[in-house]
Write a structure and sequence with these properties.
- The chain has 256 residues and is an all-alpha fold.
- 72% of the residues lie in helices and 0% in strands.
- The protein contains 9 helices and no strands.
- α2 packs across α3, α5 runs parallel beside α7 and α6 packs antiparallel against α7.
- The longest helix has 34 residues.
- It is globular and about 60 Å long.
């Protein structure tokens, strides 16, 4: 009889370990999460840490899913069963990360700010940053699930993106965080909701609003903003090209 431990050992022998990527930044993330107020640098560090952690799992999921389909096609029954077990293992880790980001990262930083009727631009930027992050992670959950569970992640992502979009009204159209929100929200509409006209409209409006005000930016912000605008433009070109490949769709940080 195969035990859970032996099953995990067998699965691990066929696939790369996912957790190794986390060792270098866990202590830093714990320190940053304990702070009452984050600098822009600390906020970005926190985001990049979780992004790296999620990215390796999404890559592992896609690789394993592809292998499962191939093993099933080749009638390799035992190997396909291992593939399935590992796919579920990765899913559970992704679900855990989504829960952690929503409850331990986003919630502590937005709960009080979101109640304020008179937000400063800096406060609005913080809210957009974290609500966008919440939307992104729930989008990842929708990518790897189906049925009711996919619906729950999809609804949570849409709500977070919409709230971020509301707070972004206080930001300049050229603000990189606001542009990043428009980029990822439009990808959510396109890939998860299959709402292609809405995706195109959102991306187009964000691009056109920003391009009219680029001459007001300093060099550093100009560089950040135009980078995201190029990704918006790339998606718009792709979405208006017949038989486009979804793997070519761009999101912020070039993270699919």
């Amino acid at each position: 009889m195969r035990t859970w431990s032996s099953t995990c050992a067998a699965v691990s022998a066929r696939f790369p370990v996912v957790d190794g990527v986390e060792c270098g930044w866990v202590a830093v993330v714990s320190l940053v999460k304990s702070a009452n107020d984050l600098s822009v640098e600390e906020r970005n560090l926190l985001s990049v840490g979780y992004k790296n952690c999620m990215s390796v799992r999404r890559t592992a999921f896609r690789t394993t899913q592809s292998r499962y389909e191939q093993d099933t096609s080749d009638e390799k029954v035992e190997q396909a069963k291992l593939d399935e077990l590992y796919i579920q293992y990765i899913r559970e880790e992704v679900f855990g990360l989504i829960k952690e980001v929503s409850e331990e990262v986003v919630y502590p930083y937005v709960q009080e700010l979101a109640k304020d009727d008179k937000l400063t631009e800096e406060q609005s930027e913080v809210l957009v940053f974290f609500k966008k992050m919440e939307g992104d992670y729930n989008r990842y959950g929708a990518e790897i699930t189906s049925g009711d569970k996919r619906g729950s992640y999809k609804d949570a992502a849409q709500q977070a993106y919409q709230e971020a979009n509301k707070f972004s009204e206080n930001l300049a159209s050229t603000n990189p965080i606001s542009l990043g929100l428009s980029l990822n929200f439009s990808v959510f509409y396109y890939e998860i909701c299959d709402m292609k006209p809405e995706a195109t409209s959102l991306a187009q409006n964000a691009f056109e609003s920003a391009i009219d005000h680029l001459d007001t930016l300093e060099d550093e912000e100009y560089k950040d903003s135009t980078l995201i605008m190029q990704l918006l433009k790339d998606n718009l070109t792709l979405w208006n090209t017949p038989e486009q490949e979804s793997d070519d769709i761009q999101v912020e940080d070039c993270e699919q």
